[in-house]
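Throughout our pipeline, every protein is held as a single compact record rather than as scattered files. Such a record has a labelled line for the sequence and another for the backbone structure tokens. The remainder of this section carries one protein's record, kept here as part of the documentation:
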Amino acid sequence: MIILAIETSCDETGVAISRNGREILANVVFSQSDLHALYGGVVPEIASRNHIIVLTKLVEDALTQAKLTKADLDAIAVTYAPGLIGALLVGVNVAKSMAYALGIPLIPVHHIHGHIAANYIAYPELTPPFLCLVVSGGHSQLVDVRGYTDMAIIGSSRDDAAGECFDKVARVLGLGYPGGKALDDLSQGGDDSAYPLPRSVIADAPLDMSFSGLKTAVINLIHNKEQKGEPLDPQGLAASFAAAVSDTLVPRTIQAAQSLGYTNIAVAGGVAANSRIRRDLETAAEKQGFNLYLPPLSLCGDNAAMIACQAYFEPLPGVLAHLDLNAYATKGI
């Protein structure tokens, strides 16, 4: 089954083509990071307009890369939730138009399902059930992946997502947008005990997290140093911040896997590219005897390959969409 997938949930425009879920024939991504860097974050209207500008060209590029024509496609898949509503609507309407014109099925894919499915591309041997830690700019969740489409959130951030905190701390440090990689690079060689930073504990929900206090503590620390004219160790602060985020995510991931009785742990989302978090997860998984599946860096961020992969599994229980498919800014998995 050959599926062309479209991903426009935020500021990356992605088109990919897969065969039978786990073989990627084409994967093209247009990043708008440079366009949004001037504003220090994603501007929804700019994101939507640029999806409109480049999307049809990317569809042609993907078909060329895969050496296919539209007549070879068996289905069209699209991210329909969650994300920026204007951006999502661009992808959904292009996908509906293509499916209608070609007379082939339309498959709606949840963005988080897609991130989790990135692991199926990197690790064809991975099958549910397993635990997945999803960490991105908008989500920090522990997901019980019971089946390809049967999932449940068993722990999540009660406020900010980890990725959002990385971007905001990076901006205050003057590292620009997107800030995750820049902050990671800065942390290399830094003293992760240079600054004592808080780790959240939620007594009545041990698998839940909170990052707003950590973000506020770092921003206040930076501002206080500036106001008092005291020197700041940027490397040490970046390393201390990464350690605090990792100390929040990693123990809960191990605890969640143990509580479910799973031996397989997967990771997904843009923050899965962070070197400190990857390293700490590898150490913890090895110590506990878990199998850890870390997607390659190319599949951590938003892309359509993961949507194309997940789309293959969605129709199995009969999940197809019609031309009244809508987009949703928020929607549970």
Summary: The longest strand covers residues 23-31. The longest helix spans residues 234-260. The chain has ten helices and ten strands.
